[in-house]
Write a structure and sequence with these properties.
Layout: H1 3-7, H2 21-31, H3 35-55, H4 60-83, H5 88-121, H6 125-142, E1 145-148, E2 151-154, H7 156-167, H8 171-174, H9 178-183, H10 185-222, H11 224-234, H12 240-279, H13 284-294, H14 300-316, H15 325-351, H16 360-380, H17 382-400, H18 408-411, H19 421-508
Length: 509
C-alpha cells in the first residue's frame, strides 16, 4: 500500500486496523457544550420561565387552586382505580360529578338556611348606626379634657372635628325623607345601573373562573401519574430518595392543613352557634356560619368574626341573661376569647397536628402579604405556603451544612405506637359507659313496658267510650249552628242596613 494511503487511512503499516481517536474527539467536541454555554442556556431558560409566569400571572391562582383540588380528590380517584378496577378517566369523572353534586346540595340547602338566619337575626341597621354614633359622641365628650394627677391636657382640637363629623350622622341621614329620595333619584338610578353591571360582570367572571378551574383540575387529575413520572425523570437518580421524602413531607403539610381546616371550620362554627344561642344573642346561626367561614383565615379570621358579635351584643343585649348590654358585650368577647384559646391549644394540635409549626406572628404577616399580593386566594393559602417554605428552607440548610436532611430513623416506617395510659383509660371509660347505658336502658324498658301497655289499653277504652258521645255532640252542634246561623245573618244585615241609612241621613243634613 502506498504511504499516502496509510497516512489518510486507519491502517497501520502492517495492515491492522487502528482506533479512530481523532475523529471521536472531534465528534465529542462538536456535541458537548462548554460550561459558559451551559450557564447561558440555564439563565435563558430561567428568564423565559419568569417571563411566561409574568405574562400568565392572572392564571396562576386558578392553576394553583386546580392543583389543590386535584390533590384533594386524588385519594378518591386512586381508591376507585385500585379497588373498583375502573379506568382512571372514569374514576375522575365520577369524583368530579360527586363534587358538583355536593356543591349543589350545599348551595340549595345552605342558601335558604342562611337567609332564614339573617331574617331571624333581626338586625336593625339604622338603629345600630345611631347607637354607635351616640356612644362615640358620648365617649368623645368625656375625653375632651384629660386630667391625671397634676397633668392635664386639652384634646379639643382633636375632639371637635370628630364631633362635627359625627353630628352630621343623624336619623334623617340614615333614613332619608321622601323629598330627599326624589332629589337623589337620578343619581341613584345611575349608581344602581353601574352596580347592576358590576354585579353581572362579577358573577360572569366568577362562573368562568369556576369553569376554567374545574377544567384545569380535571386535566391535572387525569395526568397525575404522568406528572409524577416526569418529575422523577427530570431529577437525577441520586436525588430520587431525598426528593421522594421531601415530597412526602410537603404532601403531609398540605393534607394536614386542608383537610384539617375543613373539619376545624365545622367545629368552630357549631361551637360559636351553640354558645351564642345559649347566651341569648340574636342571630346565633348567622354568627356560627360567619365564624366557620372566617376560620379559613388563620389568626385574623376568629378576631374578625368576634367583632360583629360584640357589636350586636352591645346594641341588642341578651334575651336570656338579665344583664346590661355593656356587660353582655364583655361576656360575648370573653366567650370568643375562650373559643380561640381552646382552638389554639386543644383543637388545632389534634386536628391539624404539627404539620404547620409556624409562629402565629409569622402566620399573620404571611396572611397580610398574601392578601396584598394575590387577594383572598393569597390569604387562604398563606399558612400552608409558609409551612412548605419552612420544609424547603430546612432541606436547603441541611444540604449547605452537609447534614442529613432526613435522618434514617425518619425514613424508616415506625412501628405502631403504643396507646398512652390516658388513651387506654378513656377507651375503657367509654366502653364501660356504653355497657352501663345499654344495661340501664334495657332495665328501664322492662320496667316501663307494662306501665305503658296499661296506659295504652286505658286510652283505647276511653277513646271507645268517648267516640260515640263525641259524634253525637258534633251532630247536635252542627244542627244548632244551622238553626242559629240564618238568625245571626239576618240580624247582621238588619244592623248594617240601619247603619247605612243613618249615615246617609247624617250626610244629607
Amino acid at each position: 500500500m502506498p504511504a499516502s494511503s496509510i497516512i489518510f487511512s486507519n491502517l497501520s503499516p502492517d495492515g491492522t486496523q487502528l482506533p479512530n481517536t481523532g475523529n471521536t474527539m472531534t465528534q465529542n467536541s462538536r456535541t458537548q457544550w462548554s460550561p459558559s454555554t451551559k450557564r447561558i442556556v440555564v439563565i435563558a431558560c430561567v428568564l423565559i420561565a419568569l417571563l411566561v409566569l409574568y405574562l400568565g400571572r392572572s392564571l396562576i391562582p386558578f392553576i394553583v387552586l386546580a392543583g389543590i383540588l386535584a390533590f384533594l380528590l386524588d385519594p378518591i380517584v386512586t381508591f376507585l382505580c385500585q379497588f373498583a378496577r375502573s379506568p382512571r378517566w372514569a374514576a375522575v369523572v365520577f369524583a368530579y360529578i360527586m363534587l358538583l353534586v355536593v356543591l349543589a346540595l350545599i348551595i340549595l340547602v345552605g342558601t335558604p338556611a342562611l337567609l332564614d338566619a339573617i331574617r331571624q337575626a333581626n338586625i336593625d341597621l339604622p338603629r345600630l348606626v345611631i347607637h354607635i354614633v351616640t356612644e362615640l359622641r358620648r365617649w368623645l365628650e368625656s375625653i375632651r379634657f384629660v386630667q391625671f394627677m397634676d397633668f392635664s391636657a386639652d384634646l379639643s382640637p382633636i375632639v371637635d372635628p370628630a364631633l362635627e363629623a359625627l353630628n352630621g350622622v343623624v336619623p334623617q341621614r340614615v333614613i332619608p325623607s321622601p323629598e330627599r329620595i326624589l332629589e337623589s333619584l337620578p343619581s341613584a338610578v345611575e349608581i344602581a345601573t353601574g352596580f347592576a353591571s358590576t354585579v353581572v360582570s362579577t358573577v360572569l367572571s366568577a362562573i368562568l373562573a369556576f369553569i376554567f378551574t374545574l377544567i384545569y383540575s380535571i386535566y391535572l387529575s387525569l395526568d397525575m401519574p404522568r406528572i409524577s413520572q416526569w418529575i422523577l425523570e427530570v431529577i437525577p437518580p441520586t436525588y430520587h430518595e431525598e426528593m421522594s421524602q421531601l415530597g412526602r413531607m410537603i404532601r403531609q403539610v398540605w393534607i394536614a392543613y386542608l383537610r384539617g381546616q375543613i373539619l376545624l371550620c365545622g367545629i368552630i362554627g357549631m361551637a360559636v352557634g351553640l354558645g351564642t344561642a345559649v347566651l341569648g344573642l340574636r342571630g346565633a346561626v348567622l354568627l356560627g356560619i360567619l365564624a366557620g367561614i372566617l376560620e379559613v383565615l388563620p389568626t385574623i379570621g376568629p378576631v374578625t368574626a368576634a367583632i360583629p358579635a360584640v357589636i350586636m351584643a352591645l346594641v341588642q343585649g341578651s334575651t336570656v341573661l338579665p344583664v346590661s348590654n355593656f356587660f353582655f358585650a364583655v361576656l360575648v368577647a370573653l366567650f370568643y376569647w375562650v373559643i380561640q384559646q381552646l382552638e389554639n391549644n386543644i383543637i388545632v394540635p389534634r386536628v391539624i397536628g404539627n404539620a404547620i409549626r409556624v409562629h402565629p406572628i409569622l402566620v399573620m404577616a404571611a396572611v397580610v402579604i398574601g392578601a396584598s399580593v394575590a387577594g383572598i386566594f393569597g390569604a387562604l393559602t398563606a399558612s400552608p405556603v409558609l409551612a412548605t417554605g419552612r420544609v424547603l428552607a430546612h432541606y436547603v440548610y441541611c444540604k449547605l451544612l452537609d447534614i442529613p436532611p432526613f435522618p434514617l430513623e425518619q425514613t424508616v416506617v415506625a412501628p405502631a405506637a403504643e396507646r398512652s395510659p390516658f388513651t387506654r383509660l378513656s377507651r375503657a371509660w367509654f366502653v364501660d359507659a356504653y355497657v352501663r347505658t345499654t344495661h340501664t336502658l334495657m332495665q328501664l324498658y322492662r320496667t316501663l313496658f307494662p306501665v305503658v301497655r296499661q296506659i295504652a289499653l286505658l286510652m283505647a277504652y276511653l277513646a271507645a267510650w268517648l267516640w260515640p258521645r263525641l259524634v253525637r255532640m258534633t251532630i247536635w252542634s252542627w244542627s244548632a249552628l244551622r238553626r242559629t246561623l240564618p238568625r245571626v245573618y239576618a240580624a247582621a244585615m238588619h244592623a248594617a242596613t240601619n247603619l247605612y241609612l243613618s249615615v246617609r241621613r247624617v250626610m244629607s243634613t
